Amino acid sequence: MDIKVTTLDGASADSITLPDEIFGLEPRADILQRMVRWQLSKRQAGTHKTKTRGEIRMTSKKAYKQKGTGQARHGNKAAPQFRGGGKAFGPVVRSHEHDLPKKVRALALKHALSGKVQGEKLIVIAEASAAEPKTKALADRFKSLGLTNALIIGGAAIEDNFRLAARNIPGIDVLPVQGINVYDILRRDTLVLTRDAVEALTERFK
Questions:
Q1: Dihedral of CA 186/187/193/196: which sign?
Q2: What is the pTM assigned to this prediction?
Q3: Rounded CA gap, 185 and 117, in Å?
Q4: Is the pLDDT of residue 198 over 80?
Q5: What's the N-to-C CA distance of the chain in angstroms?
Q6: CA 117 to CA 23: how far, in whole Å?
């Protein structure tokens, strides 16, 4: 399919062909859900930890005599049922990461890209550049394009002036093409690709 290429100022440049095998698929929510779950689980720290009764610093003396009190039999006060005691079956330090086949990850990215095309939320620009690192000037250019909540994917490297100007604009994320991922695509309303990004993605999935 062909899509027109615009500049950041809103002027029409030319058009570019998007490969149907990358941008023309029917998005599947189940594959996208698996990919987002894999991404979020992979970055989860897993450092949550509670102390068990063996790790509580407390006397191990028997709380009161075994018989004659009319109460239940108890040993030391580190037991979970006492205030200040250890936690029974609490969380432990572990990795939340799980496996997801590489082919499924690649397919999920294609479906995310296709979903933006299908929803008419994909914009292709000639280049992501700025004459000077001025946030207000770049924000005005975004406003003219109607970009208030967008992910902008540049080429192999993001131009310094553009990166510095865009980093303080709320609702705008900027990534090089190597960092493109399903979660960031889905969490932003509009996806903006540079011509270099489209060519890199086409080459990547060739």
A1: negative
A2: 0.83
A3: 12
A4: yes
A5: 16
A6: 7
Q: Which residue has the tokens 């992501």?
A: 128
Q: Bridge-partner residues for 192, per DSSP?
A: 123, 152
Domain limits, the chain: 2-45+98-204, 50-90
DSSP calls for 25-54 = S---HHHHHHHHHHHHHHT---------TT
Q: Cα(91)–Cα(128) distance, rounded to whole angstroms?
A: 45
pLDDT per position as a tens digit, 120-156: 999 999 999 998 999 999 999 999 888 999 999 998 8
Using a 10 angstrom Cβ sphere, with 0-12 exposed, 13-18 middle and 19 or more buried, the burial of residue 129 is: middle
| Contact partners, residue 133, CB within 8 Å, separation at least 6 | 160, 161, 164, 165
Name the nearest CA neighbour of 164 among 139, 133, 141.
Answer: 133
> Given 3.40.1370.10, 3.40.50.1100, 3.40.50.1820, 3.40.50.720, which CATH number is that of 2-45+98-204?
3.40.1370.10
